[in-house]
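Q: Okay, next protein. This is Aldehyde-activating protein from Pontixanthobacter luteolus. I've checked the sequence twice, so it should be correct. Can you predict the 3D structure?
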Amino acid sequence: MTQHLEGRCLCGAISYSVAGEPAGQLVCHCRDCQRQTGSACSTIMGVPAAALTINGEPSVFQHEGESGRSVKRFFCGDCGSPLFTEAEASPGVMWVKTGTLDNPDAFTPQVHIWCVSKQSWLETGDVPAAERNP
């Protein structure tokens, strides 16, 4: 069964929909995600790029991630909400920031990554954890 997900930024200037199954659901603890979210981690759901429809024009910040590969971070230029990440390490996949989903309960973490920089007070529970990107 194909999942249908929808979401938007804080101000609503950018919305999106996904018609497809997630390629992965993870919690990233890398320093770049911490800085980008202003939080301890980033909860992200990988979806096929072809299954993502974006309404509005997100701004893009491109840089070299901790992996040494190119990363594009898409966000709303009006309200600043981080929306998606496109990483050279995972071609054809867009990583949706799950806090922007209309139904964030659709997210179930499968793995924690970049735990080498995980905040010491944050527990991963029974979810598998990797020092870096597996």
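A: Here is a summary of the prediction. The domain at 4-117 is CATH 2.170.150.70 (Metal Binding Protein, Guanine Nucleotide Exchange Factor; Chain A). The chain has one domain: 4-117.
Q: Noted. On to the next one.
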